Amino acid sequence: MERKTNSAGKVIILFFAFMVAVSLFSGHADAASGKKTSGVSSSRTAAAEKAAKQLQKQTGAKATIKIGKKNVTKQTYSLTKGSKATLKVSVSGWSGKKKITYSSSSKKIVLVTAKGVIKTRKTGTAKIKVTVKGGQKSVSAWVKVKVVKKSPAKPEQPDGNTPGTEKPGSGTPETEQTGGGNPGDDTSETEKPDGNTPETEKPGSSTPDDSKPGTDTPDKTVKAEFNFKTKTVKLNSGYEMPINGLGTYSLHGEECINAVKSALASGVRLIDTASAYGNEEEVGQAIRESIEEGIVKRKDVFVITKIYPGSEMASPKNSIQACLDRLDIGYVDMMLLHHPDRNDVKAYKAIEEFVKDGKIRSIGLSNWYVKELTEFLPQVDTTPALVQNEIHPYYQENDVIPFIQDLGIVVQGWYPLGGRGHTAELLGDPVISAIAKDHGVSSAQVILRWNLQKGVVVIPGSSNPDHIKENTELYHFSLTEDEMDRINALDRGEKHDWY
Ligand SMILES: NC(=O)c1ccc[n+]([C@@H]2O[C@H](COP(=O)([O-])OP(=O)(O)OC[C@H]3O[C@@H](n4cnc5c(N)ncnc54)[C@H](OP(=O)(O)O)[C@@H]3O)[C@@H](O)[C@H]2O)c1
């Protein structure tokens, strides 16, 4: 459900529209599990959109939130799993009430002002999961809200401990803006004169090699097809990228070095890191050591890193160069903007300059959805080669994936196994387990294969060499249409992180 919500009133209108839709359709919910059937889900979307359209014409929406008898409107409060609240919405003299139960296992802190402005630590969109219960029946859905005001800025933590940055299960409250940078940051960049060109004796200098785009650069507006023989996809930048890799979020020190080396030794050729993960040095070291040990050549490894909102995007040239320096592998195959930010266009254009210099090969985005892409793409010259978003059987992004692919952009899924803290439930899902048993493979392999068959590149994270190897063995079996459908039916719209 992509909708524009430009004012505080609309935030609540959207919330309210959901409530209206839920009450209209709650009779279709599965009483025992609270899960929806896919048919009901699309009816609900249509009803919500209709209600939202009608209500958007009106003004003066107001909301109050009560927890128990306490009116917590205008106060900061924590929603944890099972938190119950009453939401009252008034629109042009009409008012209605709903009891809501917060059912996500990740904590969220929101502040609802008397005007109905929901504040979180970032401007942009946020999603709050609500479950509405009526008698025996309950329906859950994620409500998308537009965050129009942000809380005061907190200093950025460059060690990757930025609150809310991929800390599954950490319960880090989303209270503060961390990624906005400070006014005036825009001018803080001091460009380094050409001294850091990586064409010294580094493994894989930026000198063009075999994998450089040739004359057969693909049509940039056509969905890129996966080649299951070479296990690669041709990006719109002309470079080949492996379709399965290793994610390195939360891996540090020796554990990170060992995981990356183990992956390279097992044939993994795609490594995902980020400035915010605080492990680019370890990733770089593992790649250099593997090259020295003759396990891989630099040109055969595809390394993705990302720069983070806030001060990094405010001074993009310095931050991009810092990533290159920390990785120290000559060039970076792809750099992503980690999240949308007020300086994202500026940062993207800075990456374009590094591409021209041969220090970076392809550009991509992370956590960009339909609305964000629609607004962003007209402002830049290079179509991103890749968008990396949360995708797993419980959060399938079925509307977003084809939208991105039809732009000729490759989709890569993060948290393919649900993310830490959620893997047990996903890997133990009865549908997935049954399919795994039928093929004699693991649940993880089924989920990763399901992604590949949907045209989604996978970067499962692991520090376990057996899992790392298992996660590469995805090409000796395939899922039938019926099996794909059974997994598709597991979608709950259940995000496992806030962005
Ligand atoms: N762009 C973004 O905003 C963003 C956000 C989040 C993540 N990411 C990227 O996406 C990557 C993947 O996400 P993630 O690592 O957080 O979560 P994930 O891949 O969904 O799950 C990782 C968990 O799965 C376990 N696991 C891996 N393979 C397994 C197997 N074959 N069998 C059983 N368990 C298995 C791992 O444990 P073991 O270590 O024991 O194997 C680990 O606990 C990250 O590493 C990061 O590179 C990007």
The overall number of domains is: 2
The CATH class designation of the largest domain is Alpha Beta
Largest sheet: 8 strands, parallel
User: What's the helical proportion of residues?
Assistant: 25-40%
Kindly report the name of the CATH homologous superfamily of the largest domain.
NADP-dependent oxidoreductase domain
As a percent range, the share of strand residues is 15-25%
How far the N terminus sits from the C terminus, by CA atoms, comes to: 15 Å
The total beta strand count reads: 20
Identify the overall geometry: globular
Q: How large is the radius of gyration? A: 23 Å
User: Spans with pLDDT under 50 lasting ≥5 residues?
Assistant: 1-45, 47-62, 90-94, 107-123, 129-211, 214-218
CATH topology type of the largest domain: TIM Barrel
- List ligands, each type once: NADP nicotinamide-adenine-dinucleotide phosphate
Whole-number mean pLDDT: 71
Number of helices: 14
The CATH architecture of the largest domain would be: Alpha-Beta Barrel
Please identify the structural class as seen in this structure. Answer: alpha/beta
Order of strands across the main sheet: 13-14-15-16-17-18-19-20
Give a topology summary.
Blueprint (H helix, E strand, L loop, with lengths): L7 H18 L12 H19 L5 E6 L2 E2 L4 E4 L3 E9 L2 E9 L5 E5 L5 E2 L4 E11 L2 E11 L78 E2 L4 E3 L5 E3 L3 E2 L5 H13 L4 E3 L7 H13 L9 E6 L3 H4 L1 H12 L4 E6 L6 H13 L3 E7 L3 H7 L9 E5 L9 H6 L4 E5 L8 H5 L2 H10 L3 H11 L2 E3 L6 H6 L10 H8 L11
Parallel strand pairs: 13-14, 14-15, 15-16, 16-17, 17-18, 18-19, 19-20
Antiparallel strand pairs: 1-2, 1-4, 3-6, 4-5, 6-7, 8-9, 10-11, 11-12
Helix pairs in contact: 1-2, 3-4, 4-6, 11-12
NADP nicotinamide-adenine-dinucleotide phosphate (NAP) binds next to α10 and α13.
